[in-house]
Amino acid sequence: MSTLYQILINHFGTEAKISQAFGVTRAQHFKNRVPEHVALLCHLDPRIPYTYNPDDFGRNSAALTLDLAKPQQATKRAG
């Protein structure tokens, strides 16, 4: 089972809610492999505790010049 899938279940609660959040018809196939575009969206969402790893998707991370720092959650401004 995919670690990211487990993170998504913990965050959203059900496969139906995962499907709704990412605009897919079914998230059951995520158990084996979460699509890369979903992994990237999870990385960009500071509320989801996941950091994208290009090696997990067959990408040569050494050849990519990516800043893989997790975005911080925005804080509300007073006023």
Could you walk me through the main structural features you see in this protein, from its secondary elements to its overall organization?
The chain has a domain at 3-57. It has 79 residues and is mostly helical. Helix content is 34%, strand content 0%. The radius of gyration is 14 Å and the shape is flat. The longest helix is centred in the first third of the chain and has 10 residues, at 3-12.
Entry keywords:
79 residues, mainly alpha
Strand and helix order: HHH
Distance N to C terminus: 46 Å
Q: How confident overall, as mean pLDDT?
A: 86
Low-pLDDT sequence parts: none
Rg from Cα? 14 Å
The main β sheet shows up as: none
The helix content is 25-40%
Could you give the topology of this structure?
Blueprint lengths: L2 H10 L2 H8 L13 H9 L35
Summarize the structure in short.
With 79 residues, the chain is mostly helical. It is built from three helices and no strands.
